[in-house]
Structures are given as C-alpha cells and as structure tokens.
Specification:
Length: about 260
Amino acid sequence: MSNRIENNLATRKNIKNARRSFESITGKKVKGATVADIEQWLHSLRSMGRAVSTCRTYLSFVNGLAGLKVGLPQRTQPQQSRILSDVEIKSMLSIVKPDFYALLASLLLNSPSVLDWKWGMLADLTLDTSIAARILLINEASRRGYVANALLSIWTTVHWINGVELDEAIFPQSPHDINRRLKSLARKAGIGEKNINLTAFKNTHKRLLAEYKDAERIAKVLGIVVTAHQNAVLPAKRSDYRLNGIGRRTPLMKVV
C-alpha cells in the first residue's frame, strides 16, 4: 500500500472521528455549526484531557466542514520544563527494553542531537563525542546483528559490502514516536509522564554534564553499560585464495 493511500485512509478516519466527536458532544451537525458551538466543543475536548495535537487535528477538519476558522485558545501559562533526577533516570533505565535502551542512554549522554546521527558518523574522528557514547552505539549495532567492532579502530578503512548504509540514521524514529514511548516508560517506572519528552531529556543532559563533567562519568553514575563487545565474525577461509580478503573490513556487515 502506497504512502499516499495510507495518508488518505488516515485522513478519512480522522475526519470521521472529528465529526463523531463534535456531534456526540454538541448534539449538532458539523455543517451549520457556529463559532460558539466549536469553541464549546474544544473546551469539552480539553476538559476530557485530549492532547493538543489531537484537538488541533480534529479542529482543522471541523473548520473545513463547517466553513469556519476557529483557532485553539492561547495558553495562559507556558508549559513547564522538566529535569529528571538521577533516581528517576535509574528507574527508567532499570525497566527499559533492549530495543529502546541505546536510544534512552544516548539521549542522556549526547542530548537529542543523537537523533541526527548516522552510522557512518561513528567512523568520523572529527565528530565531537565521547568514547562512552561511541561504544554504546557500537553495542547497539551488535544487538541489531551488525559486526561493528571494527569501528573501534581509528585506522580501519570503512569498506562496505552489505548491511546498513553509511548515511542511514541510527535512530530513525520520529520525535512524536520517541516522546510517546518516553511517556509510557516514565509511567511504568512510576515517575509520572507529565512533561516527559525530548526537551526534558535535553535539559536533563545539560544538568548531568554540568554536574558530572563528561559522558564517561555520567555513564558510571547512572549505570549505563558502555563496555565494548568483542564479537566480530570474520569470514571463513575460501576455497579460492583470491576471495579470502573480501568482506574482512566491513564495519557494519549484517550477520546471516
């Protein structure tokens, strides 16, 4: 199914949900609704605890169906930023699943800037990051099934056969998906999900860096595992000696 078809299906679903929400709350049809009706409906949605993003999506469709242009009310107070304590961080790290561990730990060691990192950057000596942060991501590559310890050597030539591409994002998830999972993790850890998002981790990273000075110390205090795994798998000897060198310098080759 193409992205265009998927987007159209999602749009039709949102329109249906928006219309159903408006008509169930106000008891009126969307076509012929007044500004007062829409404002009352919005107030009810916010009172029910609906997210601002959901209200904005529904409102855009209701405005289009009603032929009006009603905006969301301005916030009376700016959203408070949150800075996590060491105890709260350890609570999240203790229950996080393996497929999210590297991202969570990287946010703490590197801030959300790690979301822009690509696999090829691990072999870039000019990249301003710590050894702990590099080893953490190399371990993540190993967890995904890539032979990555060749990147630990600054003299290793990056040679590609198969596997991930050098320009492929290490963490391709969208900020929205990451925020949603962070909130879920915080809720399960018992620290509350309020104001848990990438901004909170950006501020938390600044606090950790100011308090502990470097990523190695941060990792040690929080118990983040940054020990390199030596699990390289080199190709076996080929029957044809001319093929013996092929594939031996692949830093992130998929293990099959």
